[in-house]
Design goal:
- The chain is an alpha+beta fold.
- The strands form 3 sheets. Strands 1, 2, 3 and 4 form a 4-stranded mixed β-sheet that branches. A two-stranded antiparallel sheet has the order 5-6.
- A hairpin with a 4-residue loop joins strand 5 and strand 6.
- Helix 2 runs antiparallel to helix 3.
- It is rod-shaped, with a radius of gyration of 35 Å.
- The termini are far apart.
Length: about 270
């Protein structure tokens, strides 16, 4: 907390309180009556907003590249090689919709004015033009020389005071404030959904690869291998559970097949004598 002496440097009082602004003392914190945010509006609300920060631009490009790389892996590695056409169409459509919404939300969060206060508007003439009532107080930012509304904070990257500023996110290359917080929340939600969706598809693709490998090994081992594994796995080892059980059973069965030829040669040699 600033001391009353320091707070006097950033405070302007209404002139109706004591006639001359030079002799007015600072109001206590509990006596502060902030002016409405409708009085202080951003001059760049309708203009294009983009922060020219090198670190933020690089992070934003990396974010788009990661989403596009996930799109490539899901489509060309997991869905297109799948033999189930319905599975590929449904999951591909869902993943593409979520990815598009994530990138659209990211673009809106990056290019939307987060609620910047106009720079340099804390002049004596402008404060007088607000026609403040007795007891009203406005605070000035000494860094950007702007009038600070309630709950506004100065961002050292944007070099502006932002209304209801939460934080400056380099991944969207923008502050998260009053006007773009909903787009930032939507972006994080869609990223979480496509990550969860991709993780589920990776699990199914992993089981599919094991099942395909199990089928090829079963065909190459011959009739004896089919009977041995069928007896050990039982009739319930079908679908996606079959490769999981085969991982546990197959090493034991292969060891048994490797031990069978020496035993056969031993019995044949004993029969000759």
């Amino acid at each position: 907390m600033k001391s009353p002496v320091h707070r006097c440097r950033d405070v302007e009082h209404a002139r109706g309180q004591a006639g001359d602004g030079a002799g007015i003392n600072c109001l206590q914190t509990e006596q502060r009556i902030p002016i409405s945010k409708d009085v202080i509006t951003s001059s760049s609300a309708s203009a294009m907003w983009f922060i020219r920060d090198a670190c933020g631009i690089v992070c934003a490009i990396i974010t788009w590249m990661l989403v596009l790389y996930a799109e490539f892996v899901v489509l060309f590695v997991m869905l297109l090689p799948s033999k189930n056409l319905t599975y590929s169409i449904v999951n591909g459509t869902l993943f593409n919709i979520l990815a598009f919404l994530a990138l659209a939300s990211h673009l809106r969060a990056m290019c939307t004015d987060p609620g910047a206060v106009p720079k340099g508007n804390a002049t004596k003439e402008y404060i007088e033009s607000l026609q403040l009532k007795p007891g009203q107080v406005v605070y000035k930012c000494p860094k950007c020389c702007s009038i600070k509304p309630d709950r506004a904070h100065h961002c050292s990257v944007c070099k502006r005071c932002i209304r209801k500023m939460d934080h400056h996110c380099p991944w969207v290359n923008n502050c998260v404030g009053e006007n773009n917080q909903k787009y930032f929340v939507l972006f994080t939600m869609y990223i979480a959904l496509i990550s969860l969706h991709a993780l589920v598809m990776v699990v199914f693709h992993f089981l599919y690869c094991f099942e395909d490998d199990w089928t090829r090994n079963r065909a190459s081992e011959g009739r004896d291998g089919e009977v041995g594994e069928g007896a050990m796995l039982g009739g319930g080892a079908d679908g996606v559970w079959r490769p999981v059980l085969s991982v546990l059973v197959q090493p034991l069965h292969r060891a048994e097949l490797q031990e069978q030829p020496p035993r056969a040669r031993h019995h044949s040699t004993g029969g000759d004598h």
